[in-house]
Fold this protein.
Amino acid sequence: MPQGMVIKSTGSWYAVAGDDKQVVMCRLRGKFRLEGIRTTNPVAVGDRVVFEMEPGKDTALITNIPPRTNLIIRKATRLSSAAHIIAANLDYVMLVATITQPRTSTGFIDRFLATAEAYHIPAVLVFNKIDLLETREGQEVLNHMSDIYRNAGYPVIHVSAYTGQNIDSLQQFLKDKVVLFSGHSGVGKSALINRLVPGLNLRTGAISDKHQKGKHTTTFAEAIALPDGGWLVDTPGIKEFGLYDLEKETLAQRFPEMRRLMPHCRFANCTHMHEPDCAVKKAVNDGALASSRYQNYLNMMLNDYSNDN
Ligand code: GDP
Ligand code: ZN
């Protein structure tokens, strides 16, 4: 039976790109209960599905959903304990950030990366608008920020959607992968997508129409095919991505460079805040661990996440 990947979900219909690249509109057959979590949507973008064409029609029924390798969820509503699945089976989550116009705070970047760790999904950081950083000072800030995240173990890519600089490296990175694309409004996500997928504007307008109100196109995640193979998952629900699923007991483990140091703390249950002989604090003092990362860890330990910026 044919298989494919869900590229868009709008209520009870799912657009599925078959392994033969044809897109088929599918519905679910019967009821699916998946992985024991209460969800408001049984199938999400990125899900692999097995489907069966309906006799005499060009639509299909989803008959099976193989286990997911990962999924990202958010609470369906503030009061509900049910979850809404934003996307599944991601190879990477990509954060598009900017040093200037607007400046993405390290607090936001670090929460995003820690959340990706909690989901066990590799993360990549893309600094866009490098054309605005051609002064020596701009270069220094960009390199300093990039060093922090490369030292933590994350790939960092510098691009300019405006000049096209390094778009080929980004394309190379994305090739044949399923990558969730996110970042604050104004960092240039639409401009990057238009660079990566020429002609998309003309085809769907879904991305560039985002400022129009009341359009359903922007309330559902959507996978956008890359010309050289691979998918960009665009998710309007991503605002919550950086806020979910972080527990203080395990927060330090969500910082890979801290995770490596923790076995050297004197106390096994060290919180790296006030304990003596803490390998994490020592690394901060020695300059081996970026103080912004440590400070953001402390902020996350001490605050709730309501002051997002
Ligand atoms: P989005 O909200 O993340 O989708 O951001 P947009 O793609 O709408 O871009 C926001 C603004 O930044 C627009 O005015 C773009 O023209 C501008 N912009 C996007 N990419 C770049 C870039 O690489 N360099 C410069 N200088 N401006 C950019
Ligand atoms: Zn410690």
